[in-house]
Each structure stands twice: as structure tokens, then as C-alpha cells.
Amino acid sequence: LFHPCERMLSVRRCALKSAAAAASRLVSNAPSSAVSTRFFSTPAESKNNICDKIGFVGAGNMAKAIMGGMIRNGVQQPENVMVYDISSDQVDSCIAAFPGVKRATTLHALVKDADVVMLGVKPQNVEAVLRPLNAEVEKLGPLKDGVILTSIIAGVPIEAFLEYTNIKHVVRAMPNTPVTVEQGCTVWCSTPNFPAEKKELISRLFSSIGDEINMEDERFLDMATAISGSGPAYVFLTMEAMIDAGVHMGFPRHIAERLVMNTLLGTCLYAIQSGEHVSKLRNDITSPGGTTASAIYNLERGGFRTTVSDAVWAAYRRSLELGGKDSNVGPGRNNILPTFWQKDMKDDTS
After folding, report:
1. Rounded CA gap, 231 and 229, in Å?
2. Which runs of consecutive H residues, i.e. helices, occur in 81-140?
3. Is 134 left (phi over 0), alpha (psi -120 to 50) or beta?
4. Would you say 100 and 299 are in contact if contact means Cβ atoms under 8 Å apart?
């Protein structure tokens, strides 16, 4: 018998091996409408930088994931990356993980000549971090012309950053935790009249950590937070329930983990590659009177579909609340469904 840690590593190696093999087939075989060809990142040979300097305010897990993806894929060299955090341990961790990344001793030192400032602090700390910046700029000198402030903070709208700073070009983005393995999905939007070359720069940056989707209307960001931003937690909870059921039936935990992880991984890749509606794929494996039909019946009787939907709506409402917006939306609320997207949807189908 293997040690539990060795079993877990074996599960991960099997999953990653399966993902790597499937990814190479997926990119060549998938319908163009089903998945971006950038979805599965591969190390880039190019060593060109997308800009002279990218500065990270906050060195948490998401910032490190983005930093690592763009460095490993040759989008930005570590010597052209700077990081600032009130926690010196967090900065030390970044510098140790990515040799060449520079430490900023003050916020102004980080932003003064940066082309992109990546903001990854807690929502409640945004004002405290950014408001003093204006005073520092007046005292120590202006920022670089055309600097882009890019926020990866949940719920905080673009208008807040325009209020707290004098930066005119702002991007609001919602990545998710799979960016850690360069398989994330980042939805982002920008201030009006955002230059095309700056859109390309941001697109290349987020493409280095998975798929990226640019939406014209900022209101989609709160929706994306509820689906792709919080979505990995819903999947993890489902995985946990399935693994525990397998153990309850008698499987060793490491075998149950392997079965569940590879089932979810393979199912997702199969759905992307097939290009079929997921309800058809589910129906295809639901034989009359069979085991799957019995399981689906119990899931539906337990309100599985509605529970998932309610969870997504709850996350959406919370994202609205974090941004100080009206959260009285969704089923059973005064505002049943937002309809702002209908007239503009033709512009957001990419």
C-alpha cells in the first residue's frame, strides 16, 4: 500500500497526463465555436514582452498565478515585472518562485513607470490602497502616460477606480482559480473608448493563463463572478460528494478520487470536443430503466438543478452587493431577469 500523499500524487499525475493527451487532440478537433484555441496554454518560444513593465499590487495566490502564467509562456519576462505588498513574506514568495521579479518598496515606486498595474487586494481595502496614490503622484511625479489599471477584485466596479485614481484606462477582470494551472477562464471589460492596441495587450496577458472573454458591458462581470469565478467551488463540492459516496460504498479513498477526477475531466473535454448541447450528451448516456436514469431521477427529485441555479443567483446577488448595486434580482424577486444584454448581445458573441 502507498502512503496517502503518494496516492494523491499518483491521482494528480494520472489526471495531468490525461489532460495533456486530451488537450493536444482537443485543440485540433474541437469546433471553433466551442473552445478558444488558446484554452490549453503551451509554453511560448517568444521571449518578447507585451510591455516595458507590469506591476502587481498585492501578491496573493491569484496574482502569483497570473504572474507565473505570463512568465512561463514568454508573454512577460520576470525582469519586467515588479510586485508590491504590505506583507514582505508574500513578496519574498513571489521573488523566490520567479527569479528576476523585482520588489517595490512603495506603491508609487511600483506604479510610476508601469504600463499595466494589476490590482489584487481585498475589496474592502481598495479605497485605502488607492486614495493615497493621488497625493503621492502630486508629490513625487506623474504616472506613465496611458497606464492601464487592471483589477481582479470581485464586485468592485470600474467607476470606483476612476473615482479613487486619475488613471483613465481601467480594466475589470474576473479570473478563476484554474488559472493556477493555466486552464482558467477570465472575463474582462474596460472603460469606454479603450484603444485597440491596449485590448490586444490585455488579451495576450490573460490568454497566458487560459481562455479570455472580453465583454463590452461591465454588468456581465457580476454574472461571470457567479458562474466562472465561484464555479470551481461548486465543482469541488460535487467532487467531494461523489468521492465520499464512493468511499461509503467501499472504494479506497485514493481510488474514489481517481475515478471522480478523471470522470469530471474527461466529461468536460468530451463536451467541448463534441460541440453538442449538454442535455443531449446527458440523454445519450441515460438508458431507459438503467442506473443513470435512476440516479438522475433522485437528483431531480432532490431539486439538484434548482439548487445549483439558486446558488449561482445567490453568488450574482452577492457580487452586486459588493459593488453597492441593487441585488433584488432573480427568480422570486422584483427584478426577475436583467434585460440590458438583449439589444447588445450581437456585440458580445466572440
Report:
1. 6
2. 88-97, 107-111, 126-140
3. alpha
4. no
C-alpha separations of 238 from 19, 261, 265, 328, 346 in Å: 20, 11, 13, 28, 34
Rg of the chain over Cα atoms, rounded to whole angstroms, equals 22
**Inter-residue long-range contacts of 142-148, CB under 8 Å, 24+ positions, other chains counted:** 143/111, 143/112, 143/114, 143/167, 144/112, 144/113, 144/114, 144/115, 146/115, 146/198, 147/111, 147/114, 147/115, 147/116, 147/117, 148/115, 148/116, 148/117, 148/198, 148/201, 148/202
| Residue corresponding to grid cell 471522480 | 260
With contact defined as beta carbons under 8 Å apart, do 195 and 215 qualify? no
Please write down the long-range contacts of 193-202, taking CB distance under 8 Å and 24 or more positions apart: 194/169, 195/169, 198/146, 198/148, 198/169, 201/50, 201/51, 201/115, 201/116, 201/148, 202/116, 202/148, 202/150, 202/171, 202/173
C-alpha to C-alpha distance for 333 and 343, rounded to whole angstroms: 23
DSSP code at position 48: -
Backbone angles phi, psi at 338, to 5 degrees: -70, 135
Percent of the chain past pLDDT 70, that is, above it, reads 82
Going by C-alpha positions, the residue among 224, 205, 210, 203 that lies closest to residue 23 is 210
Do residues 251 and 205 lie in contact, with contact meaning Cβ atoms separated by under 8 Å?
no
The pLDDT-based confidence of 338 (bands split at 50, 70, 90) is: low
pLDDT tens, residue by residue, 50-103: 999 999 999 999 999 999 999 999 999 999 999 999 999 999 999 999 999 999
Determine the Cα–Cα distance for residues 11 and 122; give it in Å rounded to an integer: 33
Question: Of 152, 277, 207, nearest to 38 (Cα)?
Answer: 207
- Quote the cell numbers at residue 264: 469530471
- All three cell numbers of 275, joined, read 460541440
The C-alpha cell of 93 is what?
514568495
- DSSP helix/strand/coil, 85: coil
Residue 265's contacts (CB-CB under 8 Å, 6 or more residues apart) are: 15, 18, 19, 22
Q: Please determine, for residue 49, whether its predicted confidence score (pLDDT) is greater than 60.
A: yes
